Automatic annotation (TrEMBL):
Keyword Cell membrane: yes
Membrane topology: Multi-pass membrane protein
Pfam families per the UniProt record, alphabetical: FecCD
PANTHER family assigned to the protein according to its UniProt record, in alphabetical order: FE(3+) DICITRATE TRANSPORT SYSTEM PERMEASE PROTEIN FECC-RELATED, FERRIC ENTEROBACTIN TRANSPORT SYSTEM PERMEASE PROTEIN
UniProt xrefs under Gene3D superfamilies: ABC transporter involved in vitamin B12 uptake, BtuC (1.10.3470.10)
Organism, scientific name: Cohnella fermenti
Keywords: Cell membrane, Membrane, Transmembrane, Transmembrane helix, Transport
Subcellular location: Cell membrane
Superkingdom of the organism of origin: Bacteria
GO biological process: siderophore-iron import into cell
Name assigned to this protein: Iron ABC transporter permease
């Protein structure tokens, strides 16, 4: 599958157009919502800060949620693309590694133990630890005979762990109803109420995951040809798979920690980008990062405008987009 943009010049132009579109979406996210602001107000919020309500909202709410949406969208999309190669499953997404369920379980355990005294920053770290531990368990369970990596076993192990963690999470919420509201707000997936320190806590892991995924792009191209072909071309499959799994854990774990388990971004975006640039991961991964950021920033902006003055969590908005796509892809029309 070559994609619509077949030449390097067109693909580079597509990157430039995507960056421009992302900038427009981010400006829209910063300026529009329950309260609408002007560009000059955004400028003075930093250049001439006077502590007004408008400036405080822009600096402490709009800017953090826009930046977090962009980074989380990029990371989830790249993680989904890597997962689809790693598992040889075109419907794979970061949830296959159990990161969503593991993070949710540990968050609920933390809320049960500490209640309202648990800060958002602490929730970020607890979620990241839970996501990483869950992914490690799934990787161990997914190893085949002789320690070989088995994509089918990995998918089944992820599904089994997700079912177990979801049941345990539901049980804890029923036993401790005081944690219900806080847990549900986080588990739906939202970038509302986040601050820059939440992004700063996970940004190093996001950057490391993105860099590792980009460095593996050529190896992912070889891996996509099949195990036998990859070995004949000198590919060290075990090492590449381990590094790819590490990239997914860093990307998905940090994203879930920052914004909760936002669904379908990692599923939808790689398919859309393949229709543009084909299966060359040297172009596909950057396109996924850019498109994922655009999608989540735009979805967050729309989600706050639908039912004003109330807001719809962005996780609900992405689910509305993703469910029809999942049905279409499962029927075999959207993937090779």
């Amino acid at each position: 599958m070559a994609g619509w943009l077949r030449s390097g010049r067109r693909r580079a132009a597509g990157i430039a157009a995507g960056l421009a579109l992302l900038l427009v979406c981010m400006m829209g996210s910063l300026l529009f919502g329950v309260h609408t602001y002007r560009l000059e107000q955004l400028w003075t919020a930093y250049a001439d800060f006077a502590g007004t309500n408008e400036q405080l909202i822009l600096r402490t709410s709009r800017v953090p949620r826009t930046l977090i949406a962009a980074f989380v969208g990029a990371c989830l999309a790249v993680a989904g693309c890597v997962m689809q190669v790693l598992t040889k499953n075109p419907l794979a997404s970061p949830s296959v590694f159990g990161v969503n369920s593991g993070a949710s379980l540990l968050i609920v355990i933390g809320l049960t133990a500490y209640g309202s005294s648990m800060s958002m920053v602490n929730m970020v770290w607890v979620a990241f630890v839970g996501a990483g531990a869950a992914a490690a368990c799934v990787l161990v369970l997914g190893l085949g005979i002789g320690g070989r990596f088995d994509p089918i076993r990995l998918t089944l192990a992820g599904a089994a762990f997700a079912a177990f963690a979801s049941s345990a999470t539901s049980g804890l919420i029923l036993l401790n109803k005081q944690s219900l509201d806080a847990a549900l707000l986080w588990m739906i997936g939202s970038v509302s109420g986040r601050k820059l320190e939440h992004l700063a806590a996970v940004l190093p892991y996001m950057a490391a995951g993105l860099l590792l995924a980009m460095l593996l792009s050529a190896s992912l191209n070889v891996m996509a040809l099949g195990d036998d072909n990859a070995r004949s071309l000198g590919q060290r499959l075990g090492l590449v798979r381990l590094l790819a799994a590490a990239a997914v854990v860093l990307l998905a774990g940090s994203s879930v920690a920052a914004a909760g388990p936002i669904a379908f971004v990692g599923l939808v975006v790689p398919h859309l980008c393949r229709s543009l640039v084909g299966n060359d991961h040297r172009w596909l991964l950057p396109y996924c990062a850019l498109t994922g950021a655009i999608l989540l920033v735009a979805a967050d902006t729309v989600s706050r405008l639908i039912l004003m003055p109330k807001e719809v969590p962005v996780g609900v908005a992405t689910a509305i987009i993703g469910v029809p796509f999942l049905i279409r892809a499962a029927r075999g029309r959207s993937h090779e």
